[in-house]
Design brief:
Layout (H helix, E strand, L loop, with lengths): L3 H22 L3 H5 L1 E3 L3 E2 L2 E7 L23 E7 L1 E10 H6 L3 H27 L6 E9 L2 E4 L10 E6 L2 E13 L4 E4 L12 E4 L10 H4 L5 E2 L2 E2 L9 E3 L7 H15 L5 E4 L1 H13 L6 E3 L5 E5 L2 E5 L8 E4 L4 E5 L4 E2 L9 E2 L5 E14 L6 E3 L26
Parallel strand pairs: 1-20, 14-24, 15-18
Antiparallel strand pairs: 2-3, 3-4, 5-23, 6-7, 6-11, 7-10, 8-9, 8-11, 9-10, 12-13, 15-19, 16-17, 17-18, 19-24, 20-23, 21-23, 22-23
Helix pairs in contact: 1-4
Length: about 400
């Protein structure tokens, strides 16, 4: 007979290592490239000392002249709080009792863990490209329970969201029943008692302003980053281009050269929206070039540009592309993924007032980029490219005269 002790031992011993591996290396290609470290974690905070510029104590002079004045390296202190990342499973008491043999119980746990992994992978990938606020979309209109959004890229069936207007929270715990990706519309499992309004913002439940510092924060043109004001510390600003243009080797190499020359970064990862990826494939086809494919850590396959992997991501707008030096990114963490343990080391705890047991996976972490100005972002890249060989010139190959 399967009991709670058996279930807890299975979660702790059989599943935890596999879950950690899946979430750290298989959740997202970018996350798999980023190193993870417990360094620079002090209590609830991450305090990271980052260098910028060069040592000022260098110069040339005469044989008997004054030596250059010593000047130390430039350092700045990045400071952020550890973000609390959670994932919860729930198993009913009836389901546990009905699992009369280990095989049936393993099937039950596998189903629950697979669901948790799917949800966790989705949200980790979304957070990587987010701005830390937890916002997943803005309402453009509402009619008879159907919500039209500005974008549904960050939304998926089953997600639970809160709704905020400019004056505060208006709805909480709304679960998405269906996402119409063609018309950018969603419906909820239960129609809200009051209407949603234009410009209301949807946030993942309980996550408002509590998510990790993703690329949305790093590439924001205003505000602060790691406790530093971007307007005062202009060297924090990355390379950003919003010019409407076609994808080409030239625009990529121009940005890479600029970053290498001005910040010393070494771009090793290109990630983009699906529209940009398709345009790049079209560009390669137009010039009759081979499409080289490489395999990344975690089993992901990617196109390459001069040996640099080019990966599309569902959470990036179709017209957007990032050039990243992933060696400058670190996911600082208090510990790796682990189960929250209650009294007596219990992982499964009864849900108060319900005949069910819950277990919660947790990780305390945040993402820091040591060199924000060594990264680049393109927006407004066209989804098609001009074929330079589309105009065919007819050449008359007939010969005049006669052979001698």
């Amino acid at each position: 007979m399967v009991d709670l002790t058996t279930a807890q031992n299975a979660l702790k011993d059989a599943y935890l290592l596999a879950v950690c591996n899946q979430l750290n290396t298989r959740a997202n290609p970018l996350l798999a490239k980023i190193k993870q470290s417990s360094a620079d974690v002090y209590g609830k905070q991450i305090i990271r000392v980052a260098p910028f510029g060069i040592n000022g104590g260098v110069g040339a002079g005469s044989e008997t002249g004054v030596l250059p004045t010593a000047n130390e390296n430039n350092y700045i202190q990045f400071k952020t709080t550890l973000k609390n990342l959670y994932g919860t499973i729930e198993i009913s008491d009836k389901a546990i009792r009905a699992s009369s043999n280990s095989g049936a119980f393993i099937d039950l746990l596998n189903a629950e863990m697979e669901g948790l992994l799917t949800a966790s992978k989705f949200n980790l990938g979304r957070m990587l490209y987010g701005d830390g606020t937890g916002a997943v979309g803005k309402v453009t209109s509402y009619s008879s329970g159907t919500v039209t959004m500005d974008s549904v890229k960050n939304l998926i069936e089953g997600m639970v969201v809160d709704v905020y207007s400019s004056s505060g929270k208006t709805h909480s715990g709304l679960r998405i029943a269906y996402v119409d990706r063609t018309n950018k519309q969603i419906t909820f499992t239960v129609t809200p008692s009051t209407a949603l309004n234009q410009n209301d913002t949807l946030y993942v439940q309980g996550s408002k302003d509590n998510e990790i510092t993703g690329l949305g924060s790093i590439f924001a043109s205003t505000g602060s980053l790691y406790g530093l004001d971007k307007a005062t510390n202009k060297w924090l600003n990355p390379y950003v281009s919003s010019t409407s243009q076609e994808i080409s080797d030239n625009i990529l190499q121009t940005a890479i050269d600029f970053l290498e020359e001005n910040s010393g970064s070494n771009i090793d990862f290109i990630t983009c929206g699906a529209g940009v990826k398709r345009a790049y494939q079209q560009y390669l086809a137009c010039y009759r070039r081979n499409i080289d494919v490489t395999e990344l850590a975690g089993g992901y396959k990617a196109l390459t540009f001069n040996g640099i992997p080019v990966v599309s991501d569902r959470f990036i707008p179709d017209d957007t592309l990032y050039l990243l030096d992933t060696s400058k990114f670190t996911l600082h963490q208090l510990c790796d993924w682990d189960w929250i343990e209650g009294e007596g080391g219990k992982i499964l705890r009864q849900k108060a007032g319900y005949p069910a047991y819950t277990a919660t996976l947790v990780k305390y972490a945040d993402l820091i980029c040591d060199q924000p100005n060594g990264q680049a972002k393109f927006t407004n890249i066209k989804s098609t490219v001009t074929n330079p060989f589309s105009t065919v010139v007819n050449v008359d190959n007939s010969q005049s005269g006669s052979e001698g």
